[in-house]
Amino acid sequence: MQLLNPVDQIFLRLEGRHQPMHVGGLQLFSMPEDAGPNYVREIVEKARSFTDVQPPFDRRLKYRFGQPFWVDDDGFDLEYHVRHLALPAPGAIRDLLALVSMLHGALLDRSRPMWETYVIEGVTDNRFAVYTKFHHSLMDGISAMRVMRRSLNDAPTPGGLRVPWQLPERERDQSQRGGAAPWQGAWKAAAATSRQVAAMPRVGQQVFSAWQQAREEPDFTAFKQAPMCMLNRRISGSRRFAAQSYSLSRIKSLAKHYDATVNDIVLAMCASALREYLLGQDALPDEPLVAMLPVSLHTADSGTGNKVAMIFASLATDVVDPVERLAAIQHSVEHWKCRYKTMTSEQIMGFTAALAAPAGVNLLTGIAPRRQAFNVVISNVPGPSETLYYGDAKLEGMYPVSIVLDGQALNISLASYRDSLEFGLLACRRSLPSMQHMLQYLADALDDLEAGLGDHQT
Hints:
The protein has 458 residues and is an alpha+beta fold. It has 2 domains: 2-178, Chloramphenicol Acetyltransferase; 200-385 and 403-457, Chloramphenicol Acetyltransferase. The protein has helices at residues 6-14, 39-48, 78-81, 93-104, 141-149, 169-178, 182-216, 248-257, 262-280, 322-340, 345-365, 438-451, 453-457, and strands spanning 2-3, 22-30, 59-64, 67-72, 82-86, 115-123, 127-135, 239-247, 290-296, 308-314, 376-381, 389-390, 393-401, 410-417, 420-428. Helix 8 crosses helix 9 and helix 9 (262-280) crosses helix 10. Mean pLDDT is 83; it is low at 172-204 and 298-302.
């Protein structure tokens, strides 16, 4: 039995019928040329044959004295967690996205381990999809990406299907060796606690410094109140999911020309798309929108769980020129980069927790619905650069599906794969009508930045 940490408990407390707190991913696969008519059904049967389910996939919630614990699920039912669906012909992508929108709006059953996988056949052009969702108390986006990577092969492997809930034998042996001695876990926990305590004086200094900087430096966005706009409405339980791939080479080329990072270009794309969307709704605020950017603090040997800090960045949506908008975004993000360079991961987490505490209380209680610390979450999760396979089915695209909240009706998440950035946009269907138009606005933003290269070079 394991007590959930305070961050994971927050994700449980935030959850309601209108506000599911799970993250997910949609993977699109092409079937091999020699695939038979029962190819997808055989995949589902094979996946369900992996019954040696490992943590955290075999754990469910149990409450004692009002506190949530993870316990082993003695009545685990793999058939419940791995489901087989099919799209109606002709299996258009819009139908797939509509199905994922519906599935993502449904709560996970807290009496069972909080994850589900759907294998969806009948996608046009001889393809199928896999949609998986995990409760955010179980793992964050980086952890979910690593877990899903377990089920993919580096080369087409007929009959070599792998599943994320069962580690390959070699990885399992290594993890068991690493955790065999009980005193090692106690030592790690004591060391982590010691580092957190040691970080507190530095955290206090940084919070005071940031408070002073917010008063003196207009480009520092930590303490600014984000402007109210339609992105910050209360939400319903209905969802709309939109997804699209954009050329990573093209984005890298723009980053090189503008002396920017890939993430800077991504933020400029999102800023331009949001500006166009809100202009179309006659709802663009006079002040710039503020984005919250999760920053992963996971190391190569980190396990599952949540280990995330935050950056609050101006999106400069009040700036008309796209090149000038990019420069303003770069300047805003640079403040946070410089500050984090001087801090340890424990200090960073303590610092951002202190800054985000008022926003967290507001999200939990809704006490001040018109006061928002940020307008939108934009999350960029690094993914694999090589072509991957699910058995012998080629992975064509992988799109993150995240969370929206009361006061945060839109989430923009993306992951890299091969030479693409795969965008997944999730919104409350009722609060943000026609949100899918933002996919075209993102493409237009790339065109605008390329059109501005000549002026920038002169």
